[in-house]
Amino acid sequence: MMLLKGSIHVTTIFLALVSSFVSTTTATSPSTAAAAAPAPGLGLALHRWYIHIFNNMSQGEVLTTHCKSKDDDLGIRKIFPRNEWNWTFKENFFQTTLFWCYLAKDKVHHAAFEVFSENEELQNSCDYKHCRWEAREDGFYLFNIPKNQAELRYKWQP
Ligand SMILES: *[C@@H]1O[C@H](CO)[C@@H](O)[C@H](O)[C@H]1NC(C)=O
Ligand SMILES: *[C@@H]1O[C@H](CO)[C@@H](O)[C@H](O)[C@H]1NC(C)=O
After folding, report:
1. How far is the CA of 124 from the centre of ligand 1 (A)?
2. What pLDDT is attached to residue 72?
3. Closest protein CA for atom 11 of ligand 1
4. In the prediction, which pLDDT does 95 show?
5. What is the value of pTM for the model shown?
6. Which atom of ligand 1 is closest in space to residue 54's alpha carbon?
7. Are the CB atoms for 67 and 101 separated by under 8 Å?
8. Cα 25 to ligand 1 centroid, rounded to whole Å
9. CA 93, 111, 121, 143 torsion: positive or negative?
10. What is the annotated signal peptide range for this record (predicted)?
11. Multiple choice CATH, 44-155, 3.10.580.10, 3.40.50.720, 3.40.50.12780, 2.60.40.10
């Protein structure tokens, strides 16, 4: 009985300590958050990107695309041989922008991937401005601007 009372008492003290710690943390966090949201984030919020999709297929195939983000459906588009389609957007404040495309070269061969995401390697290849995706006979290439070369990223799926 003594032991039980003692442990209840200890638990009560512990909970009191925890709740005082929690309330202290809660009280200070808004000012911390305000102090930690300065100008650099605002600069990035206005960062403009361009996504390009080139139909560089050599056999005259029409490239069908359907690209979307969380907020926008860019619709179904057909890109004729040696043509390009592109769109531009400003990265959102929270830097969670993502564009995803379904692409098809005929009734069988298709690819589906993120043409833009918060992937550092992808953004670096785009030189923080222009993501140049290129459809070729074997798949999708991303033009790596710093390296000045197109790199095969996704093969057509049967
Ligand atoms: C293919 O796409 C690239 C973009 O990466 C473009 O600069 C180039 O002119 C295109 N090449 C051909 C052969 O159409
Ligand atoms: C976007 O594509 C069009 C062709 O559809 C082209 O005329 C234009 O120059 C492209 N814009 C950029 C910024 O590359």
Report:
1. 19
2. 93
3. 56
4. 81
5. 0.73
6. 2
7. yes
8. 55
9. negative
10. 1-27
11. 2.60.40.10
The residue assigned the tokens 């098809």 is 104
At 83 the pLDDT is 98
Q: Where are the domains of the chain?
A: 2-37, 44-155
What averages of pLDDT result for each successive group of 10 residues across the chain (158 residues)?
44 39 34 40 68 97 97 96 97 87 96 97 97 97 98 97
**Sequence-separated (6 or more) residues with CB below 8 Å from residue 6:** none
Using most ligand atoms within 8 A of CB, pick from 86, 129, 131, 134 the residue to mutate for ligand 2.
86
The whole-angstrom separation of Cα 88 and Cα 129 is 10
